[in-house]
Amino acid sequence: MQPVSRGTLKRIMQEFPTVAWSDGELDELVSPSFGVITGFQQLLNNIDALMRIDLGDLPMAGSLRRGAGNR
Amino acid sequence: MSRIRAASLGIPDLARAFREARQSPFDFIGALLGRIDGTADSHSYITVARDNALARARAASAAAERSGTLFGIPYACKDLFLTRGIETTGGSLARRGWIPDHDAAVIERLSAAGAILVGKTNMHEFAHGITGENPVFGTPVNPYDPKRLAGGSSSGSATAVALGLACFALGSDTGGSTRVPAALCGLVGLKPTYGRVSLFGAIPYSWSVDHAGILANTAEDAAAVLQVIAGFDARDPASADLPVDDYIAALAVPSPRRLGVLSAASMPPLAPSVEKAYRRAVDGFAAAGAEISEIVLPDLAEARTVALLIQMPEALAYHRRSLTEQGELYGADVRAGFAVGEFILAEHYVTAKRMMERYRQQMEAVLRRIDAILTPTCPIVAPRLAETTLTLGDRELPVGNALTCFTSLFNMTGNPAVSVSCGSDAEGLPIGLQIVGRPFEEGTILRLAHDQEQRL
C-alpha cells in the first residue's frame, strides 16, 4: 500500500456521499495531533494486518450468554 | 480541592438512616449543594439540578412512608443520560439547551428506588475521548493533583464522587470511560456486562460496545446501585432478559479462588509504580488463599484497532445528520475522530465485528479454568493536562492508547469489569486494579473488589 494522502481522502469526499470535512480535518487524519489515534496510515497498516487473519466461518458477534466460560 | 466522601456512611447504611428518620435527606442534600457551589471551579457539573434535588429532598424528609433501597441518596449522572425537564448536553454545544421530555431507563429506576438526582456531570464531548477534557464546560481535574487529568470520558462523574459532591455517579463505558477515571481518581468504577443495564435514553457513542457505568466510593456502594439499575428493558435492543443476582449478598459469600494474571510475555509495559502496586495486589490475593495462574489474552494493541473499527463508523453514523446541520458546534478533536469513521470500509467494520466474536470465544475459554482476571486498569498514573503522548517502555504512545490498553478489550467481549484502588505512587496518585469476570457474574468481581478494599 502507498501512504494515504490528503488528496486521496479529498477525492473520496468528492465522489462519495460524505460529511464535508475540512482540509484541516483531513490533515489531522494524515498527521494527527490529538492523541486519539497514531495516524490514519498506521490504522490502515493495522487493518491490513487484521484482514490477513483467517477467521474461517466465524460470524459477527451476537448477544452474550449467561455463564459463558462457566465452570 | 481534596478527596473526600459525601458521607461517612456507605450507601446502604445512609439510606437506612434516612428511612428510619435518623438523618434528614433535606439537611444532607442542602449541605451537599453548598459544597457543590463551593467547588464550582472543579467543573464537575454541567448542570446542578438544585430545584429538583431540594424539592425531592423536602418531600423525602416529610414522607410518612419511607421506602426504597436508595431512599434519599443524592447522586449525579453523566450528561448523556436523558433527564426529563433538565438540560442534557452530551458535553457539547451541539446539544446545548436541549431539555428532554423523558428520563433514561436508569434515571427511572433510580428515582423509583428513592435516589435523588443532584446534577448532570461534565464529560468528554459525546464521550469521544478518554482524557475527559472539555473546552466548552471546563476540564475536571484530578482531585489528587490539579495539574493532572481526572480521566474520561466520565470525568465529571469521577470528580463529583471523589470530591464528595455526590454519593455515587452514573457514567458510561465504551472503551474504559468509567474504569479509567475511577482508577485515576481512586474510586471504584464498575462496567457491568453488556446488556445488563439498559441504555434506553442514553446518547449513544457506539451501540456495539456502549455500557452503563457506576462510579462509587466502595464496592458495596457500587453493588447497591447495580442492584437497582440492572435488569431487562424491552426498549433497549441490547438488554439481556436474564435474572438479576443479589449483589449485596454476593459480597458476603466465600471469595472465588481461581484468579488469572497476564503472563509476563503478554503484559504491556507498565510504569514502575503501577507494576509494584499491581504485583502487591496479586500477592495479596495469593496470600489470602487464591490460586494464581498465568493466562494469555488477545493482543491488546490489535484489540484497540478492532475497537476503533467498530466505534468510529458507529459514532459517525449516529452523529452524521447533526454534523451536517451544525458541524461547527462540535469540537475539533471530536470531528477529527469521526472523520476516521468516514474512511473505514464496510468490510473492515464487518471484520472487526467478527474479531469481536473471536475475542468473546477466547475469553470464554480463558474463564472456563479461572473465576476472574486481574490486570492493572491503566499502565500509568494520571497524565498531566494537555499531554498528548507519553513514553512507556521504549515506545511513544498517544495518551488515549495508553490509558485504554487494558480496558477496551472487555467492551468488545462484554465481560463485567471493575476498577478498584490498589495503592498510589510516591506522589500519592491513585493506581487501579481491574477485575474481570464471566458475563452476568458481577457479584464475583464485586466480591473480589471488596476483598481488595479490605486489604488496602
Task: Write a structural description.
The complex is a heterodimer of chains A (about 70) and B (about 450). Chain A has about 70 residues and is an all-alpha fold. Chain A has a domain at about 5-50. Chain A has helices at about 5-15, 25-30, 40-50. Chain A is elongated. The mean pLDDT of chain A is about 85. With about 450 residues, chain B is α/β, with parallel strands linked by helices. Chain B is built from 15 helices and 15 strands. In chain B, a hairpin with a 2-residue loop joins strand 12 (about 390) and strand 13. In chain B, helix 2 runs antiparallel to helix 3 (about 50-60), helix 7 (about 220-230) runs antiparallel to helix 15 and helix 10 packs across helix 12. Chain B is globular, with a radius of gyration of 20 Å. Chains A and B meet through helix 2 and helix 3 of A and helix 10, helix 11, helix 12 and helix 13 of B.
